[in-house]
Amino acid sequence: MKPLIAVTPLFDQKQNHQYMNSEYFPAILDNGGIPVLLPIEASESTWDEYLDRVDGILFTGGQDVNPVLYKQTPMETTLYICPERDALEYGLCKKAIEKNKVILGICRGEQLINVACGGTLYQDLPTYHPSSIGHRQPPPTDKPSHDVKVVEGSPLHLLTNKTRIAVNSTHHQGIDKLGKGLVAMAFATDGLTEGVYMPDKKFVWAIQWHPERMYKDHAAARQIFEEFIRQAGK
C-alpha cells in the first residue's frame, strides 16, 4: 500500500473555511503517496490516533507562527497569525517528533518545527535581516528566484548531489535561533537558514522554499518529495 500522508490545513478565519492550496496534493500523489487533510478541529485528544494511522505528516505554508509561542511580542508586521492553526500544529508537531514520525515542513512548516523545538524566528526579515536577494518574490512563484547553498555531507546534499539549488521564495519570516535537535542543511546566500533536519530522528526535514510548486520541472524539488514519501513507506 502507498504511504498515507497527513497534511495540515490552511484556514481562513473570516470565511471560516479550511482548505488546501492546489499544489500540495498533486506533489504527494505524483511521488507515490496518498494525501489526507487533517481537520482544523483535531484536538489533543485525537492526535495519537491520527499519528498512529498515518505514515507521515506534512506541515504546510501559510500564516505567521504566533511569536508568543517563542516568547516574543508580535510586531506590527506580524499580521497573519492564525490561532486555530497554532492550536493544532504546535502541539501536534511536538507529538509527531516524540513519536518519531516521518515529517516534512514547508515554509511556515519549517518555522513551526523550529519553534516547536524551542527555536525563534525573525518576525520580519527586512527589519532584522536585511537581504540583497529578496525572499518574497512576485508571481510566478513556481520559478526559482535565488539559490541556496547546501551543506556538504548533509542529507539534502547526499540526496541531490548538489551544493547549490535554485529555489522559489515567498516568505517574510525565517529562522533566527535554531531549535534543539535541529541541524542546518541549507542557507540562502545572505546567510538565512533555509533547510534543517533532525539527525537523531527517522526523517524530520524542513525547508523554507516551496518544492510543491516546482517538482515537475526541477529535479531537486521532486527528489525532496520522493525521499519524504519513500521514508514514510518504510
Q: Give the CATH class.
A: Alpha Beta
Largest sheet strand order: 4-1-5-6-13-12-11-8-9
Please report the total strand number as a whole number. 13
Q: Give the total of domains.
A: 1
Might you state the CATH topology name? Rossmann fold
Uncertain runs are: none
H-E string: EEEHEHEHEHEHEHEEEEEH
Report mean pLDDT, rounded to a whole number: 94
Helix coverage percent:
25-40%
Largest sheet: 9 strands, mixed
Strand percent estimate: 15-25%
Count, helices: 7
Rg:
16 Å
Identify the CATH architecture.
3-Layer(aba) Sandwich
Overall 3D shape: globular
CATH superfamily: Class I glutamine amidotransferase (GATase) domain
Structural class based on helices, strands and sheet pairing = alpha/beta
Distance between the termini: 11 Å
Overview of this protein structure:
Helix content is 28%, strand content 22%. With 234 residues, it is α/β, with parallel strands linked by helices. It has one domain (4-232): 3-Layer(aba) Sandwich (Rossmann fold). β5 (56-59), α3 (83-98) and β6 form a beta-alpha-beta unit. α2 crosses α3 and α3 packs across α4 (108-116).
